[in-house]
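Human: Here is a favour to ask of a fellow structure person. Comparing notes only helps if you start from a blank page. Give me a protein, with the fold worked out from its sequence. Please set it down just below, with no commentary around it:

Assistant:
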Amino acid sequence: MSKKQTWFVMIVLAVALVACLVVDLMLPSYHIAVTVIKKAAVYALVAVSMNLLNGFTGLFSLGQAGFMLLGAYAYGVLTIPVDKRAGVYQYFDGGAIHFSIPEIFSGVLGDTVGTTVGMLAALLVGGILAALVAYLIGLPVLRLKSDYLAIATLGFAEILRAFFQWNALGPITNGSNLLKSYPAFSHATPYVVLAGLMIAFIVLLIRSTYGRAFKAIRDDEVAAEAMGINLSRHKRLAFVISSFFAGIGGGMMAMYMGTIAAAPFKSTLTYEILLIVVIGGIGSITGSVLASFLYIFSSEWLLRGLDSGTFLGINAPGLFKNGFRMAVFSIIIMVIVLFFRRGLMGDKELPDIPNMIRGVGRRKKEARK
């Protein structure tokens, strides 16, 4: 990047962070703006992790919801306070696990710091668990290609969701009952900072030699193998890394939701993340982040009035009723897909935005001439 591009990126990130801090200071934690930022940050991380696999490596995987499920349950199980486990696992005699990672760290580092470190450690454990399962699943599954790989990973996610609701695992997963009473960040800034750090790591990975190998596999597997790239090793590496960050995203999703159940982590969630990747641009980290915030802002806030009778000051309960929001949202998505075939950003990134703006300006001047 040039110095101008570097300064542009730093200014944009600083403005985003300051805006998030202002929202946290000015608004209560239950305000819709705080909720939107939390959820959008989680979706941004998971969308970028999926883009690493689908957009930069060319592997069409639909197992993201399953890895998020692993991260969410790992976080919940390991952070529920010991004195609350009897109430949470009331049908399973208090559960099989009788410790809490935040409480362990609190005994050493103090309540505030220890709890925060324990929460971060539990997120890390969730990511590692998702990565380990991805490694095992990837051994047979990554031999498949295209739609077959998508079907296999989608089936894995659905099987995993049913498996976690099995009563035999109840002492750990609480069966089909909710996991609750675990600690969570109440403000939006920790979500944004965490997601930002994880995404920054993915960006560094993509710019490394491994990232270049991923792109070579995406562009032409035969040529990549002829250049000495170990296809199976790099595919497995991309799959494991993507799943690791999806697991961390799942833990953050658990924080956001406040309770954990297997039901929300169904194939619909994966399709939602895939839609964000496509809207933002397959192969663009910036596009995935931007599309995540636009998607959540529109679906959870801007268009919410279409389901409640009043929208933009127009009171029409006969038209604006339950379900109309999704109809309008579907039309908006269709328009984006039709007019932005490569997504909002294509394969461009944040440093390329000034050049894109200048290019649009030049085209307008040429059209006037």
